[in-house]
Amino acid sequence: MAVTDNQTSKWKASRLFQTLAYFGVVPFIGSVKWLQKLFGEKTPKATNTSEVVLVVGANGGIGKRVVPRLLKRGYQVRSLVRDAKKAQKVLGKNVEIVTADITKPETLTPEIFKDVSKIICCTGTRVQPVEGDTPNRDKYNQGVKFFMPQVVEDPQLVEYEGMKNLVAAAKPQLQPSKQKILFDFTNPTQDVKETWGALDDVVMGGVSESSIRLTGSSALFSGNVSTENSGGFVSVRTRNFDPPMNLLGYAGIELRVKGDGKRYKFFLRCEDKWDGVGYSYSFDTVYNIWTTIRIPFKDLTPVFRARVVENGQPFNPSQIYSYQLMLSKFEYNRELNPKFAPGFFQLEIESIKAYGSDELPKFVLVSSAGVTRPGRPGLNLDEQPPAVKLNDQLKGLLNWKLKGEEVVRSSGIPYTVIRPCGMTEQPGGQALIFDQGDNIKGIVSRDDIADLCVKVLEENKACNTTFEAKGDKENQATAENWEKLFNSLETDNKKLPLTV
Q1: Low-confidence ranges of the chain (pLDDT < 70)
Q2: Which of 189, 336, 397, 465 qualifies as a FRET site for 433, CA 20 to 30 Å off?
Q3: CA–CA separation, 64 vs 87, rounded Å?
């Protein structure tokens, strides 16, 4: 269609510049944050909806490795330690540190667990090395006869009573959840107010115009959509989240909306590009009636500029950079939206939630291989690791670790119990070998166990499982290794016995 002078005059360059400044990008080019400074636009922090993970024993051999790995994955981390000054030297000054002692239940205050959605417990009874032991525990792992570790703490108090205290304090916060509120427009925070902005066809030369306004009880997405100047869409979109939202384990998005009878689209994006692939879902509204729209992740369509991306990458719920609501004259692949009409439109939004989570672990316990072996009939102690041989001298350490595991398993909290074989300070990067039944022997890097602790948080196949892990000397870790390992696991109600 030819563009007349009258139509051209309706296009407003000022609106285009305002849009670019708000989002800090140029469509088809990318981020240009200097535009926000040029137009005096403040750059707010996106709403932080990432998971809060409490690492218990955060300055220990495993905990101090877990913390930076969680931060790198975009989690918020709270580090629980007994000595804050010591922990700060180990973890740095930019990590949230709380002090408590799991053997003293009065120290496990509700404030420690506020907003916590997952726990990784890396605590353990302190064992005093004696002369002949080395930092790498080389002599220990070789089972040298004269090595006789001395228990500094009471294993019953730390491994069993302490675990009961921790689970009791954390349980109210870690119940399985079927919904997660992403945006509550009935009670919006300042972050929510500064996250959403209009993105209309002005970026393509069109003259449509929309806005999003908070009414106190909802968000009102409204305006005028026009097909002049080859336009025909209006939308509101979030600024990119930093870090991206992680919705692994959830089944989809739930919208609570009151519409005008038109068909809208909802987009999610898994990359921080401005003009990249969006995962789209179309939904119809009923005039002036509140409805709940469920958008299953499995039904999202990958699109690029309203064209379906054939053989596109699967949607990645662990890395969501933005959301977008759109009214467009097009459906997909140049097909017209059957319920589109130019002119005034109005969509009221009460909330945006994630719904229907697949069960993921909420409590990860680092225990020890060998916990079921002391006293096992027919066991040849000469063939067992030192921890099993010396269990009596260690005041029944493995027995109490097993009882601590049972506290977690019987808690009702979705869990994973990891039983590492002999841990070393060797560099990580090896593949792992999993087993269930507590029979394997070997060694494993603390680096690799720390990686494992973080990975199981996002693996539903690891939920409610107990397994042993050792290093695989022959192979390096790959995504294929990890997938095969987790697929091999059976849940604890299928894999017996856990105890003797």
Answers
A1: 1-9, 13, 21, 24-51, 129-149, 176-177, 357-358, 494-500
A2: 397
A3: 9
